[in-house]
Each structure stands twice: as structure tokens, then as C-alpha cells.
């Protein structure tokens, strides 16, 4: 590999020529020291943070940010400039580093072997240890499809769910309400027949009595008040209506609850939370990663 590179430099010196005084090769860099709240150098593209936590969830990233991270060149992969890195930072025992990828700006283009000096930053993943899962809760940090949606996507998704379950509720009521009305009417007729039979065997209406005429009685009591024959809302109709409404609303909110981030207890560090967790001590944590150019 080195022999071929030397031959290429002899044939076309511009290939190996340094494009600028601020251009370097990562294969010649042994260590990188990155700081929080600082930006990289930039030439072709916009600068990036020297330390950037990319997950697995921003809520975990917001719990703690290391002040300094030191990355060490651990050799290369298939290409001499495809450097592999180990990055170390001091973290509380609740956290550990995951993947740590070094991102640098190609000097002339994104695939340039030469990179701009001072343009490298680290994209790292902050993970919870077993102690962190016990303190902050594990399932509350799972990334879900609902978390990945924008506000407009959440609005239209919720509106679509509401329309869908509202339609199901309307169909249910169209089927349930006539059945409940018919059941209530049958129960009312049966009760009126039972009352008529009881009056048939009772004492006759004396002077001044307001009782019904003497037998024979017809199956239908014409003297019964029309108010008694009219159906009134009762227990079964109220139960059916309440069940239908609860069914529709419950399904909708349960659907949201399934897509919204779950929480198994512990610390609540949601958006807008003013509480900041405190940590007593830190230990060195190491992550591994490769090189990317931008």
C-alpha cells in the first residue's frame, strides 16, 4: 500500500501535495481532545459541536453531558485514513459511553483524504448502566415512533384516530340504541300488564273512587295514563350510552398511550422539567468508533 502510494506521488505529485497549511491527515493524528459547548473549525460547511450526543434518546443526553472527551488513534481499517478511535470521558456510574464516531470536514470535498485542522467532533451515544436504569427507569427512555414525529404529524395522526373511533362509536350507537329502546318498551308493556291484573282482583271502586270500570277488562288498559305508557330513559339505556362513549374514548386514549413514551418509574426528566439530577462521583468510560467525513 505504501509502495503504491509512493509510486502515485512520483507520477502525479499533486495527489500527495498538501492542499493548504491547515490541512492534515488523520493517520498522523494520535489524539483528539474535544470540549463541551464548543464548535469545530469550518471551511466548506458549517461548524458542528465538538461533543454531540445523538441518543439513544435526547432525554438521556439531557441528563448529563461530559465536559471533556479524549479520543485516541487505534490504527486504521482497510484504508490508511479510515482511522478507528477509542474515546474516553468521565461519567457518573449511572451512564456509559456507546459508539463514539469522529466526524471531520474534508478539506476540498467530503471524501478528501485531507481534513481541515480543528474540524473534528465526536458524535456519541449515552447509555444507562444497570444503576442508571434503577434510578431513572429504563422504559421511559425508549425511542418510539411517536417521539420521532413532528408536531404537525402528531396533530394529524391524533385527528385521524379521533375521526376513526368517532365513526366506530356512531355505528355502535346506531345498532345499540334501537335495541335498548325495544327492550325498554317490552319491559314497560310487561309491567303495565302485571299492574292491570293486580287491580282486576282488588276491591271495586266505591263512591268517589277513581278506579277503572268493572270487568271484563281488555288487554290494553285505556284508563292508564299515557305518561305511564311512554318510555323513559332508565338504567339500561344509560349504561349502554355510557359504555359506548367509554369504549370510543378509551380506545383512542389507549392508542395514544401505546405510542407515547412509557415510563417505569424513577426520575422524570421530560421536556420542560426544571429539576436537574445530582451526581456524587464520576468514573472513566470508554467508547469505540470510526471516522466519517462531511
From TrEMBL:
Entry annotated with the keyword Membrane: yes
Keyword 4Fe-4S: no
GO cellular component: endoplasmic reticulum membrane
Residues annotated as transmembrane: 162-184
Biased composition (Basic and acidic residues): 221-231
Ranges of compositional bias, category Low complexity: 270-294
UniProt keyword annotations, A-Z: Calcium, Calcium transport, Endoplasmic reticulum, Ion transport, Membrane, Signal, Transmembrane, Transmembrane helix, Transport
Pfam name, any one: SARAF
Subcellular location: Endoplasmic reticulum membrane
Protein name: Store-operated calcium entry-associated regulatory factor
